[in-house]
Queue: 3 jobs
Job 1
Amino acid sequence: MAQPPGQAERVERVSTLELFFDLVFVFTITQLTGVISDDPTARGLLRVVLMLGVIFYMYGGYAWLTNAVAADRAARRLLLLGGMAGFLVLALAVPSAFSEGDVAFGVAYLVVVGIHAGLYSRATETSTIRAVVRLAPFNLASAVLVLAAVVVEGTAAYLLWAAAFAVEWFTPRLAGTGGFRIAPAHFVERHGLVVIVALGESIVAIGIGAAGLPVDLALASVAVLGLLLAACLWWAYFGGDDIRAERALAAVPDDRRGWVAIQAFGYWHLLMLLGIITLAAGLKDTIGHAFDPLDLPHALLLSGGTALFLVADALFRHTLHLGPTRLRLTAAALALATIPLGLTTSALTQLAALVLVVAGSLLFETRAARA
């Protein structure tokens, strides 16, 4: 197939500037984990879902951006650094985003959206520029809704947040994905890095939860089990699926690749990140209570976060036809079944059961693939 004009501009691997950009996202994940940790209720979870939804949508927008417009010129790099600054301020404002009159989150989000559109307009492909012009009004509308949401309070704020969330994640349906070209190698690698960033936050959460506590057998046991559980989730995603995903995305025809990318790396990665954040909050709060029974919210955080990640990963595999999903869905159900262990025995017991469930499913899956 002939290479479209401007196709050579697309980067094939993630640049160091993009890695630098992702460091800001580490802080964002930390802040969102703190919101659930401070308020492990349905309200806290809802706030994180709404904030993560709008944040990850624009993070994904920047991943699509650098996939099409290489940050190889000073002006583009400066604009990308401006986007980083916007994301940093946004992350700082996460704890107060639902406080009436604290507009920092909304203003920062508007800056992030504006820089994204401005940098995307520097693409050299006519089809890409047309696609951005088609997309920009939806992004601007969602940014205005977010700004309005942080100004008001109560039910109205939640409704505005939900409207912004819906506008963004339905935009691909409304505006379409035609005109956006995707370089599979770069695209898959960039989204794999965000999963690594989030999994790293689960390890950071263990350290934050253990701050000031004596490093005894109980603390060491929970910390190691938390690390093993995060490693199992890493293995589920990076145990070969990342390589197969690149090949699968490359095999999708250009006219369908954008929509497949939205499903696999948008919708399902959003759920994966929510699962990791939820699990990280559970680890942070239980690290100092290894041998104590858990209350229902924290038992749900540990099992629910693990189960949500596995379900999202199964949907990711299904969308890209990477392999069977039955064992991972079964593991998700068994993860939820460990909740009574945490309630009646201890955090240590529940974590050990979760590690056995996820590791066992991966082992059976590997043996089945070899057979």
Note: The CA atoms of residues 97 and 105 lie 6 Å apart.
Job 2
Amino acid sequence: MFLKIYKMRISSILFFLLFVGLCAHAQTGNTIKLTNLFPESIGAGTNFTVDLSFDKPEIQAYAVFKQTFPKGFIVKEAQSESAEFSFEKNELNLTWLRLPQEKHFTVSYTIQVDSAVSGIFAMNGKLNYFVDNRQGTVILPSDTLTVKKAGNPTLYKDIAEKVDTAKKENNPVLVSANEHPKKDISCLRELPVSIPEKNEFEVKLKILKGDLVSTARITELIPPDFEARESDSQGAVFSFVDNKATFIWNKLPETPEITVKYTLIPKDKNNKTQPELNGQMLYISDGKVVPLIVKRNY
């Protein structure tokens, strides 16, 4: 009887040690560390790039990374490091039949946020991987992203409704600048300056506004072979969507003259062509919506 109990205890101890050994192997020897860097806040209607970094031992496991995004977020592949990339129904999937050999590598993806989105969102993710028929799971450290409203989201809906009403009443609200008493207001675009070392162009828009302090918007039509990025917005909310670079102010700065800047990046790195640009400024004065053509100052 004593020998039987002794053998059972030995078996239990051996099983426990084996179990601990397997767990230690799974939790230490094969542990993968994930780091995901999100900006603290962005403006609605903008896009940004996220880097997901892997630190791992010398294992080449089957792995799947999943991350779910709120509605209004669109994720596109940038650098997937041999993973199969997919984004469907607001879920990002990166699938590796075999993880890269490198102990440290980084994948990247771009996120476009709809101009109607705002709020604070949790950015969570999870990696499942399999080594020797055992599954490991890594939970991405929780992070939050604040999306700020793109100016007054109802402003342009209100403008459209005012214009429609005015047309029905035969009382135009949308007037030309020549018909408006504030004739000293203008928006000028300087010649885009080439920055050869970065293969970019810097664009400056100078607003001569006198004492005008109102809601305003500048929209620049960007050629389809370029992307636009904010450089200096002077308090405006900047967005780049559908080949349109937009600056929106709930209230223009009080200074009589302001200059905003944005950068144009060619999609083709070999493209050295000077971009052709067209734009319009809208502001509200005395209940009237006034359009201005952005004039070339060169």
Note: The first helix runs from residue 2 to 29.
Job 3
Amino acid sequence: MRITDIREATAAIGSEMSNAFIDFSQMTISVVAVASDTIRNGKPVTGYGFCSNGRYAQGGILRERLIPRIEAADAADLLDQDGRNFAPCKIRQVMLSNEKPGGHGDRAVAASAVDMAVWDLVAKLEEKPLWRVLSERFNGGAHDEQVLVYPGGGYYYPGKGLERLREEMRGYHDQGYKAVKMKIGAASLAEDLARIEAVIDEIGSGGDLAVDANGRFDLSRALAYGEAMGDYGLFWFEEPGDPLDYALNAELAAAYPGAIATGENLFSVQDARNLARHGGMRPDIDWMQFDPALCYGLTEYLDIVETLEGLGWPRRRHIPHGGHQLALATAAGLQLGGSESYPGVFQPFGGFADDTVVESGMAEPGEYIGIGMEAKAAMFTEIQRLVGA
């Protein structure tokens, strides 16, 4: 068994929307296909992957470093102990060989796209859904039939006022979502409070609303928002300051009575360990949001979950960022706290399979073989256009 081809391409997911830190008009992602020499139905069994939104495509790193290392490796060095399937941990080791420690940024994103494709391939070769493979290998065979899901939305758009924000959130409820998320931090505190209150009025409960500052605030502004929002009883206050400013996060956690969520822009086991040790995060109320399509991939994400378990963090306090089928499968197979969803943004890559039904804020992972890329028609058509055989 061997890998016969690895292809990468850049996909555009640009939009006029923005959060508190960036606009998405030039946003891109990397798409990867990993083909094997196993033939089924006249075609090579192939895994597909992409990196999550927010960090841009990583074509140079993929073409110049990561992919050539995998292609140059002995086939046996990429296989599991029985030689019957590929070993994601070994492939990660090969593609990251000769890389210095630290600086977990763009190369983590590049590796994630490859790693997603590898796990898709592994599950396809086993002829099982990825969530079932994860359940059997890392969760004693247990899994969740349904997963809590929430839509990432509430972005700033030119000319978008309170009524359009209300309409957006009402639309998510009509789609079956219960908890929703909106952006804050790109307006004044008074304007954001008006936006928050409008959404709470629309959905009926602050406990079903998460707010996301995307790392915008310094300490004084984070504390001011925390104090102003303290009585809303929000689902969580997400990424209030720079993700590496653990002191800011810890001081806010000491002052803010509600839940804090962060981690999507931290990309390694080392980052996760430092957040748990120094960020003031509370395992009984706060949320870890590491993204299996940004943090060197699902392989590293599994190490992060295990590491944080050793530091007292239950799996149910993890809700992976990303809003795609990989995050949903990971949450179901490992019995995490839930998964983000992108039903309306970052298309065609955002969101779940076309036939996924969201009811009372819960979704089933589906019985798709592999991750389920093929079950999201518009996305898979674009993947095939970019990296198809």
Note: The first helix runs from residue 59 to 72.
